Amino acid sequence: MEQTSVAKDRSDMLTRDEKPGSVLERFLGKTDHQLFWITLVIFIIIAGLGVMAPDRLAAALQVLQAFITTHFTWYYLLFTAACLGFSLWAAAGPYAKLKLGKDDDEPEFSTMAWLAMLFSAGIGLGFIFWGIAEPLYHYMQTPYGAEPGSAEAVPVALQISYLHWGFHPWSLYAVGGLGIAYFSFRHDQPMTIATSLYGILGEKTETSPWSKLANLVTAFATIAGISTALGLGILSIKFGMTHITGIEMTPGVTVFVLILFMAAYIASSVSGLKRGLKYMSLINLWLAFAVIAFIFFAGPTLQLLDLFTDSVGHYLTNFVTMTFWSDSMDQAFDGKWLGWWTVFYWAFWIAWVPFVGGFIARISRGRTVREFILWVVLIPSIVMFICFDIFGGAAILAERSGAVELWKAVQADMGSGIFMLLTAYPFGFLASIMIFVSLIIFLITSADSASFLVAMLMSKGELEPKAGMKIVWGVVLGSLSIILLQSDGLKALQTASIVCALPFTLVMIAMMVSMVKGFRKDRAKE
User: Fold this and answer.
1) DSSP string, 109-152
2) Closest to 130 (Cα-Cα) out of 106, 158, 152
3) CATH of 55-525, one of 1.10.860, 1.10.1740, 2.60.40, 1.20.1740
4) Could you give the CA distance from residue 447 to residue 449 in angstroms, rounded to a whole number?
5) By CB count within 10 A, which of 14, 67, 155, 330 is most buried?
6) Which helix (H) or strand (E) element contains residue 79?
7) How is residue 99 annotated by DSSP?
8) Which residues pair with 99 in a beta bridge?
9) Distance (Å, rounded) from C-alpha 68 to C-alpha 368?
């Protein structure tokens, strides 16, 4: 009788252990099943539409995007200005010394490692892609009254680039990251975008339908944004590989390279923040600085210094005007320029707030509110000014001197800019190899950060999600990039994420209200 009971117990244990659900739970760890499956189904549908009708899907989304950028210009400008104002208030106001964590918490990462990871998530390969191309576009197609291609258009081109990559976008990231980090680390809440609403929703935060919707939008924006970035990043790497090795990247080779990238960033993500991502970000930070220093010292150094002073002066002098300029009389390119550039950028950065803000929050335990704002808004903005002056300034000066026909090259292939510029420099080929390696690492660290963040969301805000969860969403990111790159559906996915930016601004407004309430309550307890 006893043997029969033992055998039955063993049989029951085996049956329980072999159930698919239990195996899946062990592989994925703690899981928000509703969010997990809804997100997965949405992207399966998007991938299907992207394969079967990419042109129709892209056209429909572009009509919607054009409507938003045309009719909500005023709103995007005011909203972005409000986020910048909130960041200034948080850094200088009465709550600036509050900690993102308990009062005795120390920073989890060194300042240099923190900054390196912050840059990897917040900038990624976008700067290498646009650092040459954008200033050239504004130099040849300036909207602010200067004659295109003229000497007076040079500092104007750089001041516009500073606007699009400086204080404004980083303040958007700061608002998103600060709300999540503050309530997660100080109030022991899950590391999700919904946690930033804790000051309003209180203990109902996890169960509120608004919180669930916010987490869904975060997952969508992150996967859509990074899948697009992976696909577009491959285009830069494609040109770089051909330029350096002479090897043409056929569609088959492109897929193979993307699979290698997928394996690399999944391995990095599984190894954890304190190993793979931290060290790769540090390596890339120094590598990028080495290339920037090379261009600065090997190029027209004195002219770049003068141009930096001139362009920063233009930027600061016209800061308020540029912040609120809506082109109400439709003067710049028949009123289309603002929608093409500034409003598009604000929507693009807002779409990335869930990912970048969420990731910055995860690595910011132990910092004060003031320290967080200074390092997330002020320092990256100054670095961007320097980088755009060196990359963009050198590109414009090379174009003006006739050393390289960069404008023609960039119009033909956006990814060619940095490689073409370096052909005008001694040892430029060596610098091209360094840039190529930097592009690869930026691509890996961006995807690593994204898969880590999505895994956290799907794991109900766990700070260290299971390796299985990271693998699943790392594969989803890479697979989506491969499918849509081959079917020309990447543009549609990018447009979809930007369209989602408009409703997400309402979440960010709620975040700011939530933080003010949370700060006041915590200060009252002291």
Assistant:
1) S-HHHHHHHHHHHHTTTHHHHHHHHHHHHHHHS-SSSSPTTSTT
2) 158
3) 1.20.1740
4) 5
5) 155
6) helix 73-92
7) B
8) 368
9) 37
Q: Write out 142-161 in H/E/C secondary structure.
A: CCCCCCCCCCCHHHHHHHHH
Rounded-to-integer distance, Cα 141 and Cα 154, Å: 11
Instruction: Tell me the C-alpha distance between 192 and 123, whole Å.
Output: 21
Number of Cβ atoms within 10 Å of the Cβ of 113: 20
Compute the residue count for the chain: 526
Q: Tokens for 381? A: 């903005």
Token couple for 158: 């750089």
Contact 422, 432 (CB under 8 A): yes
CA 183 vs CA 89, 191, 194, 454, 515: distances in Å: 18, 9, 10, 19, 8
- Domain residue ranges in the chain: 55-525
Q: Whose CA is closest to 113, among 366, 295, 388?
A: 366
How far apart (Å, rounded) are the C-alpha atoms in residues 163 and 342?
8
First to last CA, the chain: 65
Contact yes or no for 262/441 (Cβ under 8 A): no
User: What is each CA distance from 167 to 104, 221, 430, in whole angstroms?
Assistant: 30, 22, 33
Two tokens at 435? 């840039």
Q: DSSP string covering 8-49, please?
A: HHHHHHHHHHHSHHHHHHHHH-S--HHHHHHHHHHHHHHHHH
Contact between 288 and 436 under an 8 Å Cβ cutoff? The reply is no
Residues 254, 259, 262, 263, Cα dihedral to 10°:
-140
Q: At what angle do helices 153-165 and 342-362 cross, to 10 degrees?
A: 40
Closest CA to 174 of 503, 517, 447, 515: 515
Kindly give the confidence (pLDDT) of every residue in the chain, 526 residues in length, as a single tens digit, with 9 standing for 90 and above: 444 444 444 444 444 444 445 676 777 778 888 888 888 888 788 778 777 777 777 777 788 888 888 889 999 999 999 999 999 999 999 999 999 988 888 888 888 888 887 877 767 667 777 889 999 999 999 888 788 899 999 999 999 999 999 999 999 999 999 999 999 999 988 888 888 999 998 888 777 888 888 878 777 777 777 777 777 777 777 778 888 888 777 777 778 888 888 888 888 777 776 677 777 778 888 888 898 999 999 989 999 999 999 999 999 999 999 999 988 887 777 668 888 899 989 988 998 888 888 889 988 999 999 999 999 999 999 999 999 999 999 999 999 998 888 999 888 877 788 889 999 898 888 998 988 888 888 888 777 777 888 888 888 778 788 888 888 888 888 887 777 776 666 667 677 777 778 888 998 999 999 999 999 998 877 6
Q: What is the pTM of this model?
A: 0.87
Q: Which of 338, 302, 361, 300 is nearest to 76 (CA)?
A: 338
